[in-house]
Design brief:
The chain is built from ten helices and two strands. By secondary structure, the protein is an all-alpha fold. It has one domain.
Length: 210
């Protein structure tokens, strides 16, 4: 699942698809925000101290209660990918998460670098909360860049059994990686193997945003 270097072939978008494509992306980003908000609340509760967050017993979250939206038009590039790869909810959430920094970076920042991280920082634990939710920043971009661990957190929270099941599911259902839509940034051998940033292949990114 390393960064793909081979060229990929993607179809060209027609001008008629552009508005529908934008709406489909907006709908899925809104859905992503709903899942993110529900997961943060179920895992950490409201704004509280670092010690309270760490000792908080996570509440169960049924993701089936937050289904992805139906694409408004099947002719858009984004809807076409969802259909062609027959993406199930976990992979669709993974795709929306990967696209978020490119389209609406504040969506992730407001939660991952916002009130929950601020509470942890005030308690002298800057960055400690981020270990649960993954994520990286770079010297050029200080916002939140999601990693594989971020997706695992959205799917499973802090429940160890669910996290293992989610990781195993990804290893068996990696169509987005097999088709070179997504890849992980390379990490050091001693880093968690899902700590690499999620990367959208440049050609697929251009296709999905048009």
């Amino acid at each position: 699942m390393n960064v793909a270097t081979e060229a990929v072939n993607v179809p060209q978008a027609s001008s008629a698809d552009t508005a529908a494509n934008a709406q489909n992306l907006a709908d899925d980003l809104h859905w992503l925000e709903q899942v993110l908000q529900a997961r943060m609340r179920s895992s950490f509760g409201g704004r509280q101290s670092l010690r309270e967050m760490q000792s908080n017993t996570p509440r169960a979250l049924d993701l089936a209660s937050l289904p992805p939206p139906t694409p408004v038009a099947q002719g858009s590039n984004y809807a076409g990918l969802l259909h062609n790869l027959r993406l199930e909810m976990p992979n669709r959430l993974l795709l929306a998460l990967s696209l978020a920094p490119h389209i609406q970076p504040s969506l992730l920042d407001q939660y991952m670098l916002g009130e929950y991280a601020a509470s942890a920082s005030q308690e002298g634990g800057a960055g400690r909360l981020m270990h649960d939710v993954g994520g990286v920043s770079t010297s050029a971009y200080r916002g939140f860049i999601p990693t594989g661990l971020t997706w695992v957190f959205l799917m499973a929270g802090r429940d160890v059994r669910q996290r293992l099941a989610t990781i195993n599911w990804l290893q068996a259902n990696n169509g987005l990686f097999a088709e070179q839509v997504l890849s992980f940034a390379e990490v050091q051998p001693y880093d968690p193997f899902l700590s690499g940033a999620l990367i959208v292949h440049p050609e697929w990114l251009a296709h999905l945003l048009s």
